[in-house]
Amino acid sequence: MLFSYRILIYSYFIMRRVCTVTLVIILLFVFLISCSKDSAADSAIAETSSSSVRMAVAVDPDGLDPQMSASASTFQVTSNIYETLVTVDENGNIVPCLAESWIIADDGLSMTFTLRKGAMFSDGDACDADAVAASFMRLISTSSARSQDYSFISSVDVIDECTIRFMFSRLDVTALARFAYPWSAVVDTAHADSLRTKPVGSGPYMLSSWTPQQKLILEKNPYYTGKCSIDRIEFVIMSDMTSAVTAMKNGLLDIILITGDLAELFEGDDDFTIHALPTNGLQLMAMNNKSKGLDDIRVRMAINHAVDKKALIEAVWWGYGEPIGSHFPVVLSEYIDMNGRYPYDPDKARELLAEAGYGEGDLHLRMFLPKNYQEYVNAGQVIADMLRSVGIDVDIQIVEWATWLSDIYNGRDYDLTVVGHTGRLDSYSLLSRYRSDASENYFNYADDEMDDLLDEYIVEPDADNRTEIAHRMEEILAEDVPALYIQDPIQIYVTDSSLDGFRTYPINIFRMDLLEYKQEPDL
After folding, report:
1. Is residue 275 within 8 Å of residue 502, measured between CB atoms?
2. Helix, strand, or coil here: 52?
3. pTM, two decimal places
4. Chain-wide mean pLDDT for the chain?
5. Structure confidence by residue, pLDDT tens digits, 155-194
6. With bands split at pLDDT 50, 70 and 90, how would you rate the model's confidence at 143?
7. How many Å apart are CA 90 and CA 88, to the nearest integer?
8. Which among 79, 179, 307, 520 could disulfide-bond with 85, CB atoms 3.0 to 4.6 Å apart, if both were Cys?
9. Cα 244 from Cα 255, distance rounded (Å)
């Protein structure tokens, strides 16, 4: 007999508290023996120095060519190797990067950038207007997952060494923001065939070494003229958070991401700083809208009624998150609360399944969960039990991240999957994946009104009108539920207290060039 979700949730509460206490004991034990016994985690971490920073990340990049990747784990690294024309600050404001200034034509159909004089790639080649033009032509014309996002660019004109103009075939009110996303980074096309493993950019760092599934080391780009205080950055691959916490406690890491239950291990300790920060992202359970059963809106509605989101967030994320009812983070100005559309109601879920022709155990769904993200594995297991409690049979399959990207995200061979989506700077970029023909539409969702509204938004010059369009798109997704929208998460980072300058951003980048160690006060 199936456990009820309430029993399952209660067991999660008990387990997390037991695990936290157990972890404290383990950490004390490890601390006492760490001087005499090496661990597998320690072997991947270099000795500390005042000019190096070591950060634990859960997943290895799927490559270091930003134009050919769709993985956040790639952009977190490449944002330090390459430069975009513009970037964002922690508040989402567009600020200079490779371009020092820009001018948007009155009709919005062209944009001219003035580049930083003397910029160079890490191999010594000039990163000038010709290089920028070549990079964008590669982005637009190749098999990049993002090429569709830049289809509004009709030509790229080099005016002089430091001036480049983009001509647009149509108005795109989000155009400037598109030049800030990490996949628009300027790459050295002379090395186009090897960028995946041998990146060449104009950013503050360059790749020193990469041992897959262990660590990736960056060192200063000698040709970068901007401020950069830290000489060496190590991204240490650690999917096991317990190992990361242990390493952090033993001084072998400087930055880690933790879950809410682990925060108490660092509270009140002057050696560490805790950063609990809202994100411009969201977490969801995607549904393949072309799968048998899921192609019926009544089944998708039933799934939404079957899941107690607040209990799910409390169980898996220890309450650090805000429930959402559509594909829209609460931190964006155009957000509207759609949580009341399909409230938790298992009886209603069973009723809708019966209307769709599915009795107890008649509907069989495959749920694929990415092994490298334990929070999504945990969430999937809780959701699966909630679905089983209303009569849906769920077969869980845990897969490697590379398999998830190739088979589920790109191949769309799945029924259900739990994953997170990175932030966007505007509603169009956030919701355009739901366009019927979008390459990122792994939901296989199609709606004519949604397509029309996306077309309207991109050319609407009036901000108030764009807000109305965004609200209607949020409503459509909340009504059609191509996914179970879970939460806008709160992320908790722990840093060495001597480290300054750590920030998070509304898009998935890290700015390691802004880090620096505090100077000891003069005595």
Report:
1. yes
2. strand
3. 0.81
4. 90
5. 999 999 999 999 999 999 999 999 999 999 999 999 999 9
6. confident
7. 7
8. 179
9. 9
Question: CB–CB of 35/421 below 8 Å?
Answer: no
How far apart CA 143 and CA 102 sit, in angstroms, is 28
Per-residue pLDDT of 448-457, as tens digits, reads 999 999 999 9
- Which residue has tokens 């920028």? 132
Residue 395 has, within 13 A of its CA and on its CB side, a CA count of 7
Task: Measure Cα distances from 213 to 109, 196, 259, 262 in Å.
Answer: 45, 15, 22, 24
Q: Which residues contact 489 (CB under 8 A, 6 or more apart)?
A: 279, 281, 282, 283, 317, 320, 321, 420
On whether the CB atoms of residues 374 and 257 are closer than 8 A, the answer is: no
Beta strands in 205-308 (DSSP E): 205-211, 215-220, 232-237, 255-258, 272-278, 282-287
Residue with tokens 């000795």: 47
Q: Which residue is listed with tokens 């069973």?
A: 350
Is 436:341 a contact under the CB 8 Å cutoff? no
Tokens 């799910």, located at residue: 312
Answer yes or no: are the C-beta atoms of 215 and 96 closer than 8 Å. Answer: no
Q: Mind listing the pLDDT tens digit for each residue in 278-301?
A: 888 999 999 999 999 999 999 999
d(CA 482, CA 452): 18
pLDDT in tens, 291-338: 999 999 999 999 999 999 999 999 999 999 999 999 999 988 899 999
Which of 374, 414, 379, 375 has the alpha carbon at shortest distance from 397?
A: 414
With the C-alpha atoms ordered 436, 472, 462, 184, is the resulting torsion angle positive or negative? negative
Coil, strand or helix: which one is 289?
A: coil
Neighbour-count burial for 498-507, b at 16+ CB within 10 Å, e otherwise: ebebbebbbb
Half-sphere exposure of 38 (CA within 13 A, CB side): 6
- For the chain, the residue count is 523
Angle in degrees, 0-180, between the axes of helices 374-388 and 309-317, rounded to the nearest 10: 140
pLDDT digits (tens, 9 = 90+) for 345-367: 999 999 999 999 999 999 999 99
Structure-block tokens of residue 305 = 């009624």
57-92: buried (b, 16+ CB within 10 Å) or exposed (e) per residue? bbbbbbbbbbbbbbbbbbbbbbbbbbbbbbbbeeeb
